[in-house]
Amino acid sequence: MDHDNMHMPPPSSSSSMSNHTKPHMMMMHMTFFWGKNTEVLFSGWPGTSSGMYALCLVVVFFLAVISEWLAQSPFLRADSSTSRAAGLSQTAVYTLKTGLSYLVMLAVMSFNAGVFIVAIAGYAVGFFFFGSTAFKKPSDDRKTAELLPPSSGCLC
């Protein structure tokens, strides 16, 4: 192989990039930033409108809440049913939860601090309502206590 002929072209400078070829291209951030002028999930969305940015934050928040709700869903917990229909419904719920989680992750990859905060808040609210013991029935606590091994008194 002749290594002398394998030259990479020089990187194009910003002066050679014309605004005429890509007039609507937004800069992609690689660090967290504050501001409503961002793109999240889709090209041009939410744009520069404050109302659309607020809608974007609400959508990301609820995607995280729904994802956490599905993660805590009884469909995903092992039960005594071994039918194929039960397995298919578990798979469908798991796939939906995973897809929503990836959408939230992609939204956070916009590096917009507001999007990051509402994603974390959405997961926290979702866990609080659907995963924590705050809203569990007392009968659920007894079932959990029965599954845990007896305490030896050591808290280490």
TrEMBL record:
Query: Which top-rank group of organisms is this from?
Result: Eukaryota
**What are the entry keywords?**
Copper, Copper transport, Ion transport, Membrane, Transmembrane, Transmembrane helix, Transport
Per its UniProt record, what Pfam families does this chain match?
Ctr (PF04145)
Q: What is its main location?
A: membrane
Q: How does it sit in the membrane?
A: Multi-pass membrane protein
Keyword Ion transport in the entry? The reply is: yes
UniProt keyword Magnesium present: no
TM helices/strands, residue ranges: 102-130
Instruction: Give the location in the cell.
Output: Membrane
InterPro entries recorded: Cop_transporter
Family classification = Belongs to the copper transporter (Ctr) (TC 1.A.56) family. SLC31A subfamily.
User: What PANTHER family does the database record attribute to this sequence?
Assistant: COPPER TRANSPORTER 2-RELATED, SOLUTE CARRIER FAMILY 31 COPPER TRANSPORTERS
Name of the protein in question: Copper transport protein
Protein species of origin = Camelina sativa (False flax)
| Organism lineage | Eukaryota, Viridiplantae, Streptophyta, Embryophyta, Tracheophyta
